[in-house]
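haha ok so turns out i had the wrong file open the whole time. this is the CORRECT one, sorry everyone. sequence first:
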Amino acid sequence: QVQLVESGGGLVQAGGSLRLSCAASLRTSRPYAMGWFRQAPEKEREFVGAIDWSGKTLRYSPSVKGRFTVSRDNAKNTVYLQMNTLKPEDTAIYYCAADINNEWAPPVALHDYDYWGQGTQVTVSS
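then structure:
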């Protein structure tokens, strides 16, 4: 069983930065991949970035590549999403997700993830 809790969302001006955190409470000893997704109003949830257990394999959506960075601290069971040069179109609820069946190849599809956090709101003003 995995519980995920996101934090760090808020209101920021365009061009600013935020760092989201996702703390995982796990009852599994299995290594796992983690992903970040977002959902804007009246839009489908979309992939943002993902990271494998080692932290060496990273995947990003083209819309955030070069601006966002995913990282993790396995000792703290925490995954981060550093968001720089934020744009109004980045406004959304951001979710972290865990794929406990996948150690090395972080997936980009929603259905590949087993557990989800409750989300944290990010609002970017113009």
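The longest strand covers residues 18-26.
again sry for the mixup
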